[in-house]
Amino acid sequence: MRPEVALPVLLPLLSGAISLLFWRSRPMQRFVAVAGNVALLIVSLWLFVSTLSDGYVTMQMGSWPAPFGITLIADLLSAVMVLMTAIIGLAMGIYSLATTGRGHEKFGYYPLMHLLLAGVTGAFLTGDIFNLYVWFEVMLVASFALLILGGERAQMEGAIKYVTLNLLASVIFLTAVGLLYGMVGTLNMADIALRMDEAEHTGMVEVLAVMFMVAFGIKAAAFPLFFWLPASYHTPPVAVSALFAGLLTKVGVYAMFRVFTLMFDQTMGYLQDIMLWGAVFTMVTGVLGAAAQYEFRRILSFHIVSQIGYMILGLALYTPLAIAGGVFAIVHNMVVKTNLFLISGITHRLQGTYQLKKMGGLYRERPWLAIAFFISAFSLAGIPPLSGFFAKFVIVRAGLEVEAYVATGIALAVGLLTLYSMVKIWNEVFWKSLPEDNLVPETATPTGDDGRLLKPSLWMMYLPVIVLAFTSLLIGVFAEPIMWVMTGIGDQLLEPRGYIEAVLGASASAEDVLLESSAAAEEESTADAEGETP
Amino acid sequence: MEPLMAVAIGLLYATAIFMMLRRSIVKLVIGLMLLSNAANLLIFTTAGMTRGAPPLIPEGMMQPPSGVADPLPQAVVLTAIVIAFGVLAFAVVLIRRAYEVVKADDLDKMKDTDT
């Protein structure tokens, strides 16, 4: 019984339920939004410490033995992802207090935020492939509702694309799960991994692997399946954008890491090239898309796509070092990307627009904000000593080790183009003076997203931004211990034996467990019948 | 029975994709509905179709006798149906709102956020 595996899922569900109970009480919902996420952060730290000492922490739901019931399992990768989710969740909880308009709060913003977090942590912690689908749907439904809160035209248009493509991905995922069950007769991921090794190699394994790759590729916004992302992420209120940017695509990437290292490791030789070039094109198209944009959040949205490429590149190179780099990139990106969206929210509050052309002069007015942006943006571009540098460094080094020179070269060039976009934002928003036709009032009255006046609560927006910028700095400064954890993740992922044994027990085969128990039962019955015959 | 189901499922998938490629958002949602139903039928079929053998374990035995229906895919399909129902209810409301806002049942008129 290890409660710390279940708690990161249960706590957000509980917070969501509590805030639903207090549907009409705005202060209570706001309190729960912060308190619940603080609690989530604490249990995530607990889980992280446990996995650091034990390697794997498992819990069988309802005490059903492993391949039959649903298993919750945390290895280092899951624990790190849950920890990052909790950090982002807390930052968003605080930030939302200041930015969420009354109208949004009235229609269930906070309960939806908690449910989204529950879906994300559930997807990270489950050890059952169908359960993974269910958590994906929990996350999606919450994100659908968050995306259209407010109901503006752009949100509707973005939501239709987002909903359609994500549902399509879900159905592909579900189809693949169904076919997989038909083939191996189990849904437990560890058990599937075992039976895939034993199963006859027909073409079906490759077909399934590609179906999973497409399904998670859509969810992770990989080339050529990313079009829903830049069409929708800039439409909702900024807190929602930031939450999505930090968490949603990463769940898709996580699922890829999990599925392809655990279950389809034997197809990797065949898929590696497709994945590698997919990753390269993801990086390039994302960063080029961003270069053409002049809307703050759209630039950032395209950069999400571009960064997804690095993560998938880490997986595609498929060495322990590359996987460590890929996970490092996920961790770094969750912090930095969320922070950039948060900063775009502050600049929107200050200047009333997301159009770069209409903004300006913030370096003089808000030097600390400019520094926070500077840290995050240069970290995204991979300038040492910030967090992005080490993520990129590890991936590039892993790429050179396996002699994937073209992909590595492109990864480096994309870093330069990222820098170009970030410098563009820096120049337009912070450096140049405010254009005269901008109608920003002198006192920059803060308003909620529904246009109602709010109390000037800028510090609640600054606090998460500064904390996240510091986190990015710290990841850069303490890169060595973090890299030590990441190497542990790489080793764990490429050596799935430990995962399988943690789920199924040391005997490591469901068949054996079943046979043993029935044999034991038979022995008992014969012993009963025949007295003391040995 | 299986070949018949395979044909039916294939037709459902094909129809669903065809409907999703239309410009009308109503047809898009109809396509999504068909698609999730096709996936459910597929799970049901791949797990093997067994008639008249409910998965009940006779008293005193540890395992059901061989040849019974597999209960797991049915549970899976049930879950998937519920999820699809909820999501599609959302999608229907969404297209209604979108129609109210955009005043057109045409995806080509919804390109504001793409540029």
UniProtKB/TrEMBL annotation, chain A:
It comes from the Bacteria. The keyword Transmembrane applies. The chain crosses the membrane at residues 6-23, 30-49, 69-95, 107-126, 132-150, 162-184, 204-228, 240-262, 274-296, 308-331, 368-390, 402-423, 459-479. The keyword Cell inner membrane does not apply. Residues 128-413 form the NADH:quinone oxidoreductase/Mrp antiporter transmembrane domain. Keywords: Cell membrane, Membrane, Transmembrane, Transmembrane helix. InterPro entries: CPA3_Na-H_Antiporter_D, NADH_UbQ_OxRdtase, ND/Mrp_TM. Coiled coil: none annotated. It is a multi-pass membrane protein. It is found in: Cell membrane; Membrane. Belongs to the CPA3 antiporters (TC 2.A.63) subunit D family. PANTHER family: NA(+)_H(+) ANTIPORTER SUBUNIT D1, NADH DEHYDROGENASE. This is Na+/H+ antiporter subunit D.
Automatic annotation (TrEMBL), chain B:
Pfam families: Oxidored_q2 (PF00420). Gene3D superfamilies: 1.10.287.3510. The chain crosses the membrane at residues 6-21, 28-52, 72-95. The keyword Cell membrane applies. It is found in: Cell membrane. It comes from the Bacteria. The keyword Cell membrane applies. It is a multi-pass membrane protein. InterPro entries: CPA3_antiporter_subunitC (IPR050601), NUOK/Mnh_C1-like (IPR039428). Its main location: membrane. Keywords: Cell membrane, Membrane, Transmembrane, Transmembrane helix. GO terms for cellular component: plasma membrane. Belongs to the CPA3 antiporters (TC 2.A.63) subunit C family. This is Na+/H+ antiporter subunit C. It comes from Vreelandella sedimenti.
